[in-house]
Amino acid sequence: MIAFILRRLAQSLLALFVMSALVFVGVYAIGNPVDILINPQADQAEIARVTASLGLDKPVWVQYWHFLTAALSGDLGKSFASSIPAVQLILQRMPATVELAVVATIIAVVFGLPLGLWAGLKPDSFAAKSIMAGSILGFSLPTFWVGLMLIMIFSVWLGWLPSTGRGATVEVLGLHLSFLTWDGLKHLLMPATNLALFKLSLLIRLTRAGTREAMVQDYVRFARAKGVPERRVVSVHVLKNILIPIVTVVGLEFGSLIAFAIITESVFAWPGMGKLLIDSINVLDRPVIVAYLMIIVFLFIIINLAVDILYTALDPRVRVSGARA
Amino acid sequence: MSVAVLKTASSPLREFAASYARSHVAVVALILLLLILAVAICAPLISPQNPYDLAQLDIMDSKLAPGSKSGTGWTFLLGSDDQGRDMLSAIFYGLRISLGVGVFSTVIALAIGVAAGLVAAYGGGWTDAIIMRVVDLQLSFPAILIALILLAILGQGVDKIVVALITVQWAYYARTVRGAALVEKRKEYVDAAVCLGYSPVRIVLRHIMPNVLPPLIVVATVQVAHAIALEATLSFLGLGMPITSPSLGLLISNGFTHLLSGKYWISFFPGIALLLTIVAINLVGDQLRDVLNPRLK
């Protein structure tokens, strides 16, 4: 088990290194930010001064070396546009994104699991068919368009919910949170639902498929033959077996929720780090793009690691094959 | 398809069609999908106007509600956008671009993925390790993020978005093909082929590939829908298609600014077209998978 964790850790570090190099080299190729940052009428001396102050006159590999050594101490450069350290800029925005993702996950699990179980247990009932039709819809609808339609219905036509921003926040342990105020909750509801919809459909389908496959397995038949009550068969035997892929997906999808939040945040002008990324791409604010990507890559690697470890704890079969591989 | 073929020697195609038609929804979806394809292919012939011929546009007709008459007397069935462009025509042309990009990138990604997966499975050793590490690395990040990174680096353009869509898709096929090919490799017919002295290339292409490809093509059908949705999303974020090739996503994005002032149709109808396309593809793909899945029989 420890060997497995150590090996996964080494893989994670390698992945982080590879991704950092790819991101840095890639972003370096976008364009020259000096052209955007300074006045077009500036003279050569001014251009040279800005270029030198940003470290852009050095060769790529020197810049990468500086970047890497600085990154290890948590310094990913200053934003070209606002002169605030990029990491600080992103960390300021992170709580908003995480709050959105957490609320979306809660919505998806609370509705997804029971609906999926129901659809799997009674696949021919009308309710199950409606659930599945709904999930296909939720799966197919592009997130950004659903967001637009939510705004159209609830903000423009009905005027119930605000369409942009975060609303009033409460400071808890230094974090600004929206869900504790009525105004914040109203701002949160639409973006969180929007973000949750895709995961909700995914969870429904996953739970249903797992349930349907589990119900015809021998261990279910055996449990029934043994006289185990149906409720226990479902809640212990079936649920335990379908929970493994579900835990994986919920865990893995949390990272992707943060990535998908880029879209939701852009639609609802939610001041999270996804919106910051899009804004930064539009003005070629290189340090912020690199810092965002590094932070999210780091986040993903941590999440993948955690899910892998959780997986081995949940399913002994993985432990055996994982130890050998 | 091999499953259906094996089950009945008499008329496999009819059996297949019959079990597909058991779901009426799937039949409707198939008809809808064929209709959408026809519209996309024939867009220049059936559109009321060429939405990108500036000579046909009149700024006086801008932002008309659905059903309004234009200055010259013909009706904008789905309204017009801020340039006075007929939305119906814009949607027909947009479908063409969205579907074209989606199908093209999926086919190329499928080809690359199948090649990489087969090489990994049959090559084994280092080749396998390297290819699969790359696949693992890529699949641990969501498609939207990979595409965003690529487009942030490459910039805008049809070619760039196609590259991004191929990049996010190939790894998935490679992993699936490798898994299936490893299973096939252990079967007796492959041993038999080896004993007959066939070359590895022949064994992979003529024996293993035909057995791993059919289920993958079903997956690819559904992937086309994902590619279309991803392209629309990227275009919406302003990182996808250039303004000269307005896909459905770009049309929706264009309407976003007018949405808050109540002019819903500029975003709404392209969205419906996008939705119908994606739902139709997903339903057809789902039914194909159910029909072909031996575990559900």
Describe the structure.
The complex is a heterodimer of chains A (325) and B (297). Chain A is mainly alpha-helical and 325 residues long. Chain A is built from 13 helices and 2 strands. Chain A has a two-stranded antiparallel ribbon. The radius of gyration of chain A is 24 Å and the shape is globular. Chain B is built from 12 helices and 2 strands, in the order ααααββαααααααα. Chain B has helices at residues 2-7, 12-20, 24-41, 43-46, 87-123, 125-139, 143-154, 158-185, 188-195, 200-236, 248-259, 265-292; strands at 68-69, 75-76. Chain B has a two-stranded antiparallel ribbon with strand order 1-2. The longest helix of chain B has 37 residues, at 87-123. The mean pLDDT of chain B is 80. At the A-B interface, α1, α6, α7, α10 and α11 of A face α7, α10, α11 and α12 of B.
Secondary structure elements and pairings:
The complex is a heterodimer of chains A (325) and B (297).
Chain A: H1 2-28, H2 33-37, H3 44-53, H4 60-72, H5 86-121, H6 126-140, H7 143-157, E1 170-172, E2 175-177, H8 182-215, H9 218-225, H10 230-268, H11 273-282, H12 286-314, H13 316-324
Antiparallel strand pairs in A: 1-2
Helix pairs in contact in A: 1-12, 5-6, 5-8, 5-10, 5-12, 6-8, 7-8, 7-10, 8-10, 9-10, 10-11, 10-12, 11-12, 12-13
Chain B: H1 2-7, H2 12-20, H3 24-41, H4 43-46, E1 68-69, E2 75-76, H5 87-123, H6 125-139, H7 143-154, H8 158-185, H9 188-195, H10 200-236, H11 248-259, H12 265-292
Antiparallel strand pairs in B: 1-2
Helix pairs in contact in B: 3-5, 3-12, 5-6, 5-8, 5-10, 5-12, 6-8, 7-8, 8-10, 9-10, 10-11, 10-12, 11-12
